[in-house]
Amino acid sequence: MRRFRFLLSRRWALFAVAIVVVAWATWWLGNWQFDRLDDRQETNRVVERNENLEPAPVADVLSPGGDVPDDQEWRVVTATGEYAVEDTVIVRYRTRDGQSGIEVVVPLVTADGTALVVDRGWLATENRGGDASGVPAPPSGEVTITGYVRADGTGDSTKVVDGSTRAVSSTEIGEAIGRPTYGGFVDLRSEDPEPAEALTPRALPEQDNGPHFFYGLQWWFFGLLAIFGFLYLAYDELKRGAPGQRGPRGKRPPRPKADPRTGKRPPRPPREPQSARSAPPSTGSMTPETNDAAGDSRNAAARPNSSGRP
């Protein structure tokens, strides 16, 4: 067990804690991606089922002030009424394909006075807050619409200020315009009669699984890689020996302290012999051979000629 003492050092203990945190974080992120995959698949099933159903009257699916059931989102509903153009609400900062724009929300007041919040579509334009001038007008008089049921947005982004908002909420819009509204809203699919100038309708969500499965595997791979790296470094440290368990090769040990009774020091241990592998090769002689031939320096080292003799 002494060989594993280095794992108890402060450096290795902090290293181990860091690896545990990284492994836990990657495991959590991987599960989060797989949870998102489950949600995406459930949404795809709901969209596929509801878009193939016959349009239902809005009162059969939505209720005034109520919430949209999860299994009813993207259900196609139909409603008849008149648009309250004066209560138009602009949804700001709706970028599409890199182009800035807005969405135009107009309440459709039904026969009993309850308003259905209708997102009529997207318009490419500079953000102008709540200014609805220049926005294509909806059909006048009695209109029959069909559209996809959507759940209300939540949070501070749904606040309606000066006729504009960042996310659609029937509750917030109803309070701003002073009308009772159905819970949830509708993304417009068709209008009868048709308007003189139509807005770009919102597309249905793509019915694929997205990148969540591969993102989840990627996070788990990062966690396993961190654990493997820690184990490899620990194995390498164990193989080389923990720091301080062996001294540097070839150095002379320190001289022992003097005996307090005699004042003499014990003899210094001999220096560790240098290994043959690291010792410099011997030439056999430190004095170079000289050539006494005429014209040659007596102090020059002898060099072999082409015959191999000096």
From TrEMBL:
Region described as Disordered: 178-208, 240-310
Location(s), subcellular: Cell membrane; Membrane
Extent of Low complexity compositional bias: 273-282
Highest taxon of source: Bacteria
Pfam families found in the cross-reference section: SURF1
Primary location group: membrane
Keywords: Cell membrane, Membrane, Transmembrane, Transmembrane helix
InterPro entries per record: Surf1/Shy1, Surf1/Surf4
CDD domains linked to this entry: SURF1 (cd06662)
Residue intervals passing through the bilayer: 12-30, 217-235
Membrane topology: Multi-pass membrane protein
Family statement drawn from the similarity comment of this UniProt entry: Belongs to the SURF1 family.
Stated name of the protein: SURF1-like protein
Originating species: Nocardioides deserti
